[in-house]
Amino acid sequence: MDELYDIAIVGSGPAGISAAVNAKIRNKKIILFGNKELSSKLTLAPKIDNYLGYYNITGKELADKFLEHLNTMDIVISKERINNIYAMGSYFSLMVNDKEYKASTVILATGVLFGKPFKGEVELLGRGVGYCATCDAPLYKGKPVAIIGYNKEAEEEANYVSELASIVYYIPTYKGEYELRNNIEIIKDKPLEIIGDSQVQKLLLANGEIQVDGIFILRDNVAPEQLVPGLEVDENHIKVDREMKTNIEGCYAAGDVVGKPYQYMKAMGEGQVAALNAVRYLDNKAMNK
Length: 289
Description:
Elements: E1 4-10, H1 14-25, E2 30-33, H2 40-43, H3 59-72, E3 77-78, E4 84-87, E5 92-96, E6 99-108, E7 129-130, H4 133-136, E8 144-149, H5 153-161, E9 167-172, E10 184-186, E11 191-196, E12 200-205, E13 208-211, E14 214-218, H6 224-227, E15 233-234, E16 237-238, E17 251-253, H7 264-287
Parallel strand pairs: 1-2, 1-6, 2-3, 6-17, 7-14, 8-9, 8-14, 9-10
Antiparallel strand pairs: 4-5, 5-6, 11-12, 12-13, 15-16
Helix pairs in contact: 1-7
Protein name: FAD-dependent pyridine nucleotide-disulphide oxidoreductase
InterPro entries: FAD/NAD-bd_sf, FAD/NAD-binding_dom, Ferredoxin-NADP_redctase_2
Keywords: Flavoprotein, Oxidoreductase
């Protein structure tokens, strides 16, 4: 897309929403990527007493307040999943399957990534391991593929891949009803290790193994250093300074993704700081043209 946004915000938890609201108040052209169904970490909280002004409130009620605030400001959450973000010098390129969004600055508020990569995942990334099934599916036309799904959205990608691959093995990490094509084989087992030399050869499970040429791991979010090449990370958290700046110029981060404590109020404050500094960065650039 040729449209250039001032600020692209990736993540719609408390940090991302706070960043979006504060950037919009300052008349910046923004786009917010995330999920309209806010994190279960928030919505399932039975009682919240430490949020100023909203004591003795449930997580669901607080989440509804967040969404109401966005609606009053005409801020829409785009449910498109960002697969990669590239620093292009004068702008950032945000890739969504075969589409591209452009923004002068980026705020990462993707939340914390729980759990470690599978054994062999990092080593075979780009050599049979991928995080976007709809992007890379044509590479596996007529070949066997495994998809490890972490949410319902992964089912859509699995259905698409099944139109091209010789067979799709779907390994769900969640419970529920699965809306999958009849030609997809559901395997309810625990993935342990990805095996291969120069290319993926098989996926080792707790109770067996499957021979595949490609494995797509569709988590709720991607590890920051894989999402943004060149980003400095320390123990799964993005390194930032007090202005929420990362090591990449024009890129900021806020919320759980930058470290503990994992608290709503801390995340919202950081979202505001990130937005205000992104705005100042943009204004300075405009004045120095």
